[in-house]
């Protein structure tokens, strides 16, 4: 799942907020501001990287507008629910959320990297038995390992024949 970063000024409350959107920029609220800071408007596969970028945007926005009360929040799937305007969260709470989110993500069985957020970007090979990989390279390495094991098994059988 991609994670998006945006700044918002919520229409109904006037709250200034840096949002991390679960699902990416398509899930940004309608009160999204034009990107002004490094990393804003980007999408990330890694929630920890998205969170660190959001914190950077938060600090830059606070520095540019020290009079404003600027919050940080996660919008979208949080504790199994879909929210509307995000509730303000502490930096610690958002980091805790990011770590938990990171731990639940699908991993490549070959390299343990986070799988791409779009399943169309997953790779496999003909003997993978449904197993998916993060890249063509990992799928090729898994195939090579499978074939090496198959050859070793055949050689072992020939020794005992």
Low-confidence spans: pLDDT under 50, at least 5 residues? 78-83
Helix/strand structural class: alpha+beta
Order of helices and strands: EEEHEEEHH
Using the CA coordinates, give the radius of gyration.
22 Å
Number of helices: 3
| Strand content range | 15-25%
Mean pLDDT: 84
What oligomeric state do the depicted chains represent? Answer: single chain
Shape: rod-shaped
Question: What is the total number of structural domains?
Answer: 2
How many β strands by DSSP?
6
Distance between the termini: 51 Å
What is the share of helical residues? 25-40%
Strand order of the largest sheet: 3-1-2-4
Major beta sheet, specifics?
4 strands, mixed
Descriptive overview:
The protein has 3 helices and 6 strands; from the N terminus they run βββαβββαα. A hairpin with a 6-residue loop joins strand 1 and strand 2 (16-22). Helix 1 runs antiparallel to helix 2. The longest helix is centred in the C-terminal third of the chain and has 25 residues, at 136-160. It folds into 2 domains: 3-105, no CATH class; 121-160, no CATH class. It is rod-shaped. The strands form 2 sheets. A 4-stranded mixed beta sheet has the order 3-1-2-4, with helices on one face. It is an alpha+beta fold.
């Amino acid at each position: 799942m991609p994670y998006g970063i945006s700044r918002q000024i919520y229409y109904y409350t006037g709250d200034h907020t840096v949002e991390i959107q679960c699902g990416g920029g398509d899930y940004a609220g309608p009160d999204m501001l034009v990107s002004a800071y490094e990393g804003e408007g980007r999408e990330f596969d890694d929630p920890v990287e998205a969170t660190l970028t959001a914190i950077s945007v938060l600090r830059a926005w606070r520095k540019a507008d020290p009079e404003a009360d600027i919050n940080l929040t996660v919008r979208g799937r949080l504790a199994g629910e879909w929210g509307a305007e995000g509730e303000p969260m502490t930096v610690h709470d958002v980091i805790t959320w990011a770590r938990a989110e990171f731990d639940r993500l699908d991993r490549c069985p070959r390299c343990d990297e986070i799988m791409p957020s779009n399943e169309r970007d997953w790779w496999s090979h003909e003997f993978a038995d449904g197993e998916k990989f993060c890249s063509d390279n990992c799928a090729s390495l898994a195939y090579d390992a499978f074939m090496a094991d198959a050859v070793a098994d055949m050689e072992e059988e020939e020794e005992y024949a």
